[in-house]
């Protein structure tokens, strides 16, 4: 209560003080000081009329005070309204608080209300009148469909559910549910159920908890309620339950299927569409209800519906689908087609019917419109054409650009307004000037700004016409007065506006002042001088200039600034900067390039340069007589006599010091011997220190000249002093060098007798041949040591063991097997042990019997050698091992040595190969004087020794060749060839037979069985003819191993071995399937080639592109080539007991994968290129023929340019763009049939094809079927309209003689005239009085004009036909209706009779 009291007080204060509200609303009008009534009355009294200003002020003050009083009253009224509103708000808030408090109190009371147990009722209470679920005083309602009582009856039975509801049902099914009736009283009760009244619901027999149909207290009985619907509509009924109570219990029954709910709006707005056009609008229709439904859409005026189709139509609208089914949550797209025929708003009502008997109306709205464009404005001054100027009369607007220079830019803005509520796609047809944007969409009822850009490239006058073309406009929409068209018209591009544009150009006017710069006298090099000059621009616009710079190795001549901009009619000051590099006279010209000017401007420059001068203090140096090995020197003085810095160099200008005066007999050389090379080092003898330097202006420096002789000689040489970009001099140098010379008096020393262990002596005499003292010493050149030790070995016993066999095996069983799958050119090593079983040392040697080799193993343990050097040494080592040309070699390490007493050594045997085959050999082990021990060896080598130059050797995959990719080619193009160089590093000639296969991805074949008669690959000559193979081959197709041949008896007729040398008539080979054998599109030439030993040969792989069918867009060609190797040499194929090599089909071939792709030359728009024309267009003024054009898009998808020609036949022509716009209406532009076109790779080209319509084409409409040329067909429609159909092909001839066809089809609407009647009878007419009869003249197809001729001069005929008889007699006439587009004229017979009878006079 206290809180409520405080709140009321605050509310009262707020309601009484509202000054802040008025102050915030009226601001200074409420708060500022005012002039009171007393002040105003005083001013009125003081007004005497003498001062006009005072009187005017008092009068205005009275008006202001009146206005102030009025506003004060309004403010008081507003204040009272605000106070009342706040009071009402406070009262309402207080009442709400009271209601909220009362609701909370009621909830608290309800929590403490409990239900008492009926067992504890007092004895005087009625036992059967109490409910088991409600307390006393609680009202219980009995549900009844008919009436409700205001009393509070006690319920006897409770129905569960209280309402029987069926929700999900369908026609033809029966649904059941259970109704439970529960006794709510404290005593047993009888119950009776009355069934439903309708036939859709029924009830079964009850199920009671006891006998006799009695329901005990709290117990229930159950009934089965059945529902059998015959439709999906809603159903209602009820069940009546009778008991001992006064009131009946009514249980309602309802069958309500949740209706499907569609999201389709009631109004489908199709928007705007051009008349004659078709607009498709899609609306999403979703079933957001809980049940499925079948829906049908029909026009409202067609209810009830008949047989329905997929769509329903009510012009100008059509909707599809008209019948559809939607499950809950499922959606479909409803498509509405709008095809207006008049420029007005249309609305049609359609009815949506559901299978649950619900009906809903929807309306479809749309508005048809005509095209309306308006040129609003053009920027700049408007310059109309002058009198006599040539211009386009058909152009609606004229735009002229002011004269300018070439490559300059002028712009004008055009604003075009679209007065239609539709987006109109457009594009401009224009050559020059540039126009942006060229394509786009005109927004509905908005202005579009276009930018005209005039940028002339050449010096000439420009004249062009810009056509604004609207795309996808109905064909007959934009004709003359824009009349409505028929439904289903074709769309075309229409020119809606023509703007003529003109512009002219003038050349640039540039002048140099002065035109040449001449610098008098000579200037030092490396000195920069400046000269000034000017450039004037008298052009129409600014210019950009760029001066070239003369920056040679000697001089620099440049202009600053080198680039810039000069405004029109202004000059620019330049600075010419000249720097010399060497002394000479320079006469040159500097070029200034003016942007967009046809030739540069030249500035002539003439100047002379001079450089520094350096002199020597002495003209020559003489060192005199010298002894070899001594050194001498002298000092020279260099002086710079100029003001320039001098860079000098002193060097010997003689390249050869060994002239005729050199004493070669006394020359001493230093010689160093290396294997295979002799190198002689001769050092430089005359040295200058420093030999080069820089002298400042007018200064000197000293240099030292050293002479170190290397041999005896008379030196005469010359040193040259060179000054960079200056003048130098020469210095001659002389010297005489000698050396002491000593010789032996005796050149041989002979010892007559020598004894072992006793030294011997002898004397030698030296003679000094000069007077110079000489120092000498002896050196030992060589020494010889001879050791004689005869060896007598006896009792030697040596054992040989294989490391992989047990020790108890005998040496005869020893076998070195290197394996049956040795990879070619891969070394394989086997080891065995050799043991000296005696106490006597013994020497041994080990060597292969046939495949022996002699070479020292390279030293690969050196740390200083790099990997590449070691690899080269190893290759040279292997090559030396296989140099004998047998294909294999067994290298033994160690191959010789000495076995100490009871010593065991491990011997490594390494097999090196460069040829495939089955090899057999024996290892000969010879120890001392013992008999040699033979160890058999065997191995089978597989692989290919050949390799391709482009891939190099492949050690891991020797039979796999390169993958040749030919790329993508044009269908039916020329053959493409690739060269493959095959290297043969072996010592044998190898013949290869090539076969090409095509790989089909869908091929399911697994193996191939190849049957050969005789040789599978016989030897052929250069012409491809088979040569007798017996003369050059070992066997005819039969491949045997070496050991099988060795064991074959000598007589071929008696041998039964399968590998005998008997000639095989047939051979069968089974191999995996790799493809289909074919020489197209891949082919290898020559198919048989012999690759010489240690040489190479070249084969050519060619690919001929396939010719694709018209439906194919691309073909991928996958193929491979197999090269089968054979050996024609007898020694190469077989060596008895040593080697045997498989050939042909028995050997794994060399494989080369081939890949290529074939595409059509170009992609064009799919379908037939159609043209539509009307002969009525021939009736336009000055037009007797015209063209209907269509654009064809050609796209080159290849990686190469295409050369092609376009050819077609009359009446179709191929249009080519002209260099200037055509202003006349002539419609016969030249075709490009005879000219070759080029389409670059990955580019597209638009080709315009025209249908040429002329009057001679109308003759085909009256010709018979035999007279009509091929491709022309006359078509008659049911409405009487006639059309001519012309069918031809556009032929695309490619440079590779392939052909591509594009179908062409044109429809020409003909004119047909028809009269409603062929005769008119006026009957009797009163003389002098006119009678009128109307006759209808119908025109079908193209529009035309006509005229009529009558043959009776006394009858006047008009339209409508009128007769006016001048005499009392019968008149007859024939009216001939003639049209220039209809060959056969129409005739109308007229007849009537004149009479003076008054009965024929009409009122």
Automatic annotation (TrEMBL):
GO CC entries: cilium; cytoplasm
Keywords, in A-Z order: Cell projection, Cilium, Cytoplasm
Molecular function per GO: tubulin binding
All residue ranges annotated as the HYDIN/VesB/CFA65-like Ig-like domain in the record: 260-365
Primary residence: other
GO BP field: negative regulation of cell population proliferation
UniProt-annotated location(s): Cell projection, Cilium; Cytoplasm
Domain Deleted in lung and esophageal cancer protein 1 Ig-like: 157-246
Pfam families: HYDIN_VesB_CFA65-like_Ig, Ig_Dlec1_1
PANTHER family (UniProt xref): DELETED IN LUNG AND ESOPHAGEAL CANCER PROTEIN 1
Name of this chain's protein: DLEC1 cilia and flagella associated protein
Native species: Lates calcarifer
């Amino acid at each position: 209560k206290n809180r409520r009291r405080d709140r009321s007080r605050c509310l009262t204060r707020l309601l009484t003080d509202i000054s802040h509200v008025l102050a915030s609303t009226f601001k200074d009008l409420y708060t500022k000081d005012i002039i009171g009534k007393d002040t105003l009355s005083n001013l009125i009294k003081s007004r005497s009329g003498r001062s006009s200003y005072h009187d005017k002020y008092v009068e205005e003050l009275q008006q202001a005070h009146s206005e102030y009083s009025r506003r004060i009253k309004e403010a008081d009224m507003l204040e009272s309204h605000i106070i009342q509103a706040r009071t009402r708000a406070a009262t309402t808030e207080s009442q709400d608080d009271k209601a909220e408090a009362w609701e909370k109190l009621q909830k608290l009371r309800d929590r403490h209300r409990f239900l008492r147990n009926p067992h504890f009722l007092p004895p005087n209470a009625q036992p059967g009148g109490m409910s088991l679920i409600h307390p006393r005083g609680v009202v219980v309602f009995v549900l009844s469909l008919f009436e409700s009582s205001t009393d509070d009856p006690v319920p006897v039975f409770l129905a569960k559910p209280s309402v029987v509801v069926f929700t999900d049902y369908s026609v033809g099914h029966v649904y059941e549910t259970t109704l439970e009736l529960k006794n709510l009283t404290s005593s047993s009760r009888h119950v009776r159920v009355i069934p439903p009244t309708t036939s859709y619901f029924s009830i079964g027999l009850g199920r009671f908890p006891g006998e006799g149909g009695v329901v005990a207290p709290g117990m229930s009985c159950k009934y089965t309620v059945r529902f059998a619907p015959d439709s999906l509509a809603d159903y209602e009924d009820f069940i009546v339950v009778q008991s001992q109570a006064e009131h009946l219990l009514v249980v309602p029954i309802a069958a309500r299927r949740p209706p499907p709910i569609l999201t389709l709006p009631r109004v489908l707005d199709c928007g705007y569409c051009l008349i004659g056009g078709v607009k498709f609008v899609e609306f999403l229709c979703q079933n957001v209800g809980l049940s499925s439904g079948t829906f049908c859409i029909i026009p409202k005026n067609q209810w009830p519906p008949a047989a329905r189709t997929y769509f329903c139509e009510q012009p100008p609208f059509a909707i599809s689908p008209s019948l559809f089914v939607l499950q809950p949550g499922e959606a479909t797209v409803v498509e509405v087609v709008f095809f207006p025929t008049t420029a007005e708003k249309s609305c049609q009502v359609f009815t949506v019917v559901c299978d649950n008997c619900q009906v809903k109306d929807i309306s479809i709205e749309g508005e048809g419109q005509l095209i309306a464009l308006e040129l609003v404005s053009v920027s700049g001054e408007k310059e109309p054409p002058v009198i006599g100027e040539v211009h386009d009369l058909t152009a609606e607007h004229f735009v002229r650009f002011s004269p300018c220079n070439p490559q300059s830019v002028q712009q004008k803005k055009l604003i075009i307004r679209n007065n239609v509520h539709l987006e109109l796609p457009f594009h401009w047809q224009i050559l020059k000037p540039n126009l942006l944007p060229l394509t786009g969409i005109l927004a509905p009822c908005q202005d579009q700004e276009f930018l005209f850009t005039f940028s002339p490239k050449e010096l000439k006058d420009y004249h062009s016409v810009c056509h604004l073309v609207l795309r996808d406009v109905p064909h007959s929409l934009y004709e003359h007065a824009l009349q409505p068209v028929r439904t289903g018209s074709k769309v075309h591009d229409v020119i809606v506006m023509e703007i003529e544009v003109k512009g002219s150009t003038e050349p640039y006017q540039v002048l140099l002042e002065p035109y040449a710069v001449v610098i008098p006298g000579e200037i030092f090099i490396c000195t920069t001088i400046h000269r000034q000059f000017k450039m004037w621009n008298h052009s129409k616009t600014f210019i950009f200039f760029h001066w070239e710079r003369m920056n040679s190795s000697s001089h620099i001549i440049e202009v600053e600034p080198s680039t810039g901009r000069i405004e029109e009619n202004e000059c620019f000051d330049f600075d010419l900067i000249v720097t010399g590099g060497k002394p000479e006279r320079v006469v040159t010209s500097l070029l200034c390039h003016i942007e967009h000017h046809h030739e540069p401007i030249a500035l002539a420059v003439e100047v002379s340069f001079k450089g520094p001068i350096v002199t020597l203090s002495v003209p020559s140096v003489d060192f005199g007589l010298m002894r070899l090995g001594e050194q001498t020197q002298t000092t020279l003085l260099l002086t710079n006599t100029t003001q320039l810095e001098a860079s000098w160099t002193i060097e010997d200008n003689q390249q050869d010091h060994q002239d005729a005066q050199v004493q070669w007999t006394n020359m001493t050389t230093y010689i160093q011997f290396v294997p295979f090379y002799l190198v002689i080092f001769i050092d430089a003898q005359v040295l200058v220190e420093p030999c080069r330097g820089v002298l400042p202006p007018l200064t000197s420096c000293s240099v030292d000249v050293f002479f170190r002789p290397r041999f005896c000689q008379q030196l005469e040489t010359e040193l040259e002093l060179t000054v960079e970009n200056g003048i130098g001099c020469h210095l001659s140098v002389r010297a005489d060098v000698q050396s002491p010379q000593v010789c032996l008096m005796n050149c041989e020393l002979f010892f007559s007798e020598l004894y072992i262990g006793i030294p011997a002596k002898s004397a030698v005499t030296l003679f000094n041949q000069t007077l110079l003292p000489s120092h000498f010493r002896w050196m030992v050149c060589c020494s010889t040591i001879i050791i004689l030790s005869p060896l007598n070995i006896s009792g030697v016993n040596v054992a040989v063991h294989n490391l992989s066999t047990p020790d108890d095996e005998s040496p005869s069983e020893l076998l070195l097997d290197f394996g049956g799958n040795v990879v070619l050119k891969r070394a394989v090593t086997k080891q065995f042990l050799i043991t000296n079983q005696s106490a006597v040392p013994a020497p041994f040697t080990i060597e292969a019997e046939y495949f022996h080799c002699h070479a020292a193993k390279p030293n690969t343990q050196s740390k200083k050698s790099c990997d590449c050097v070691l690899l080269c040494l190893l290759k040279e080592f292997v090559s030396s091992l296989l140099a004998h040309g047998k294909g294999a070699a067994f290298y033994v390490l160690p191959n010789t040595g000495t076995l100490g007493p009871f010593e065991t050594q491990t011997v490594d045997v390494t097999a090196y190969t460069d040829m495939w085959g089955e090899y057999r050999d024996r290892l000969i082990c010879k120890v001392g004087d013992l008999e040699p021990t033979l160890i058999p060896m065997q191995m089978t080598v597989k692989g290919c020794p050949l390799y391709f130059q482009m891939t190099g050797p492949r050690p891991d995959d020797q039979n796999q060749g390169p993958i040749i990719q030919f790329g993508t080619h044009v269908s039916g193009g020329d053959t493409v060839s690739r060269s493959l160089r095959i290297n043969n590093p072996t010592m044998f000639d190898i013949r290869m037979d090539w076969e090409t296969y095509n790989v089909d991805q869908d091929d399911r074949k697994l193996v191939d069985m190849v049957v050969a008669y005789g040789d599978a690959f016989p030897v052929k000559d250069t012409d491809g003819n088979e040569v007798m193979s017996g003369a050059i081959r070992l066997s005819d197709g039969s491949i045997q191993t070496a050991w099988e041949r060795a064991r074959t008896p000598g007589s071929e007729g008696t041998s039964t071995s399968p590998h005998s040398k008997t000639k095989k008539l047939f051979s069968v080979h089974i191999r995996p399937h790799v493809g289909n054998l074919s020489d197209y599109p891949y082919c290898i030439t020559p198919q048989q080639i012999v690759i010489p030993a240690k040489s190479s040969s070249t084969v050519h792989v060619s690919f001929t592109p396939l010719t694709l069918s018209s439906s194919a867009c691309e073909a991928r060609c996958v193929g491979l080539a197999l090269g089968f190797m054979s050996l024609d040499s007898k020694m190469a194929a077989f060596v008895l007991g040593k080697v045997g090599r498989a050939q042909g089909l028995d050997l794994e071939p060399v494989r080369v994968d081939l890949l290529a792709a074939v595409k059509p030359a170009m992609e064009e728009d799919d379908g037939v290129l159609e043209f539509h024309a009307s002969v009525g267009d021939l009736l336009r003024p000055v037009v007797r023929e015209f063209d209907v054009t269509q654009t064809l898009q050609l796209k080159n998808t290849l990686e190469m340019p295409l050369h092609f020609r376009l050819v077609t036949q009359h009446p179709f022509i191929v249009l080519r763009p002209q260099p200037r716009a055509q202003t006349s209406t002539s419609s016969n532009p030249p075709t490009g049939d005879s000219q070759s076109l080029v389409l670059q790779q990955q580019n597209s080209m638009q080709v315009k094809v025209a249908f040429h319509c002329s009057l001679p084409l109308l003759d085909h409409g009256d010709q018979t079927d035999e007279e009509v040329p091929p491709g022309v067909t006359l078509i008659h429609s049911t409405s009487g309209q006639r059309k001519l159909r012309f069918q031809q092909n556009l032929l695309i001839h490619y440079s590779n003689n392939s052909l591509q066809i594009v179908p062409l089809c044109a429809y020409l609407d003909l004119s047909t005239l028809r009269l409603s009647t062929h005769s008119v009878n006026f009957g009797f007419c009163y003389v002098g009085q006119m009678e009128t009869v109307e006759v209808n003249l119908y025109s079908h197809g193209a529009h035309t004009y006509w005229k009529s001729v009558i043959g009776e001069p006394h009858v006047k005929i008009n339209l409508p036909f009128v007769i006016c008889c001048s005499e009392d007699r019968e008149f007859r006439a024939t009216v001939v209706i003639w049209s220039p587009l209809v060959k056969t004229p129409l005739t109308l017979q007229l007849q009537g009779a004149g009479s003076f009878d008054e009965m024929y006079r009409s009122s």
